[in-house]
Amino acid sequence: VSAGSGGMASQCSLVRRQATDAWGDDFDRRRPRPGRGGATSDGGGRPRFDRRAPKRRKQLVTEDGMDLLYGVNPVLNALRSGRRESFGDLRVQASLMEGVLKRSRKNPQLVRIVDVAEEREVPVVWTEKHDLNMLANNRPHQGVVLAASPLEPESLDGLEPATADEGLEGEGGSAQCWLALDEVVDPQNLGALLRSACFLGATGVVYCAKNSAGLTPAVSKASAGALEVMDVHSTKNMPKFLDKSKANGWRVVGTSLEPSSVSLSQVDPQEPTILVLGNEGHGLRTNVMSCCEVFVRIAGQREPASDGDPDVDSLNVSVSGGILLNHFLSRDRPGVE
């Protein structure tokens, strides 16, 4: 796609292709017309604009089942990692076109996105902000929307025998830690947990194949693109997964506010561990709790209300997950380099 006039178009040799059909019938490309819509090359170095704005989408998928990723980090990571099987069009906000073509330092990530799209031969279509809003269902797209095939998680029925993390040395090195999510249904929570797991270096993540949030564009956005660069697994039966993993030497740690739970500081982080977090409403299911060897809690510091009951008695599951993962994976303890 070339855009602008004269030398501006030569500053960035974008893919000279018509937009694919991945977007369905939302755009009419029969003739160039200034105004709202996408812009592709008309062969003369001028932007070609789509005639009609797209319909607003309740589900962020195209008519042929491709995900509509939105946001700088999800789009950039998806293009760089190449873990998705195929890509459709990359739509970029038209008002940012001049800065991208001039390689402005104000939007280095956007410039990088267009560069990687060119490397992967992904068609780039310059699109009005209003139309990006419609495609992203008024979510924060940051000027980019990418059509990409869905991610398919690998199914696991248990973990192999645990081994020491080869990336850490010495007796104080952190052991491996997996994050298991038992029916976490909020895409924002799932995305935030994936972000923490990726940032802190969790060995892997496994979630319930049923009654859980899927690996959707909303989850990718909430994860700041972590979903696009890390392996996320699913399991059809969480209790069986935990039992099989225990038999292979993994310690299963659950979270609970029950009196039997212990303070996080009392749990040795050196053992290979599966950290299990439950649903936002009811927590861990009973059959999942029966698989846990120890339960931990995060002690709050706020004083009880005047009637003796705490006014805030727990943390959001994604916040709890970040704190717990940091305990098991932190390298700031003595002996950890």
Question: Can you give keywords for this protein?
Answer:
alpha/beta; 10 helices; 337 residues; 14 strands; six-stranded mixed β-sheet; eight-stranded parallel β-sheet
Structural account:
By secondary structure, the chain is an alpha/beta fold. The chain contains ten helices and 14 strands. The strands form two sheets. An eight-stranded parallel beta sheet has the order 7-10-9-8-13-11-14-12, sandwiched between helices. Strand 1 (38-41) and strand 2 form a beta hairpin. Helix 2 packs parallel to helix 4 (108-119). The radius of gyration is 24 Å and the shape is elongated.
Brief account:
With 337 residues, the chain is of the alpha/beta class.
How large a portion of the residues is in β-strands, by DSSP E?
A: 15-25%
The overall pLDDT average reads 80
Structural class by sheet pairing and helices: alpha/beta
Number of strands: 14
What kind of sheet is the major sheet?
8 strands, parallel
**Portion of residues in helices?**
25-40%
Strand arrangement within the widest β-sheet reads: 7-10-9-8-13-11-14-12
List the helices and strands and how they pair.
Layout: H1 7-10, E1 38-41, E2 47-49, E3 67-70, H2 72-81, E4 87-93, H3 97-101, H4 108-119, E5 124-127, H5 129-135, E6 144-148, E7 154-155, E8 177-181, H6 187-200, E9 204-208, H7 217-222, E10 232-235, H8 238-247, E11 251-255, E12 262-263, E13 273-277, H9 286-289, E14 294-297, H10 317-329
Helix pairs in contact: 2-4, 6-10
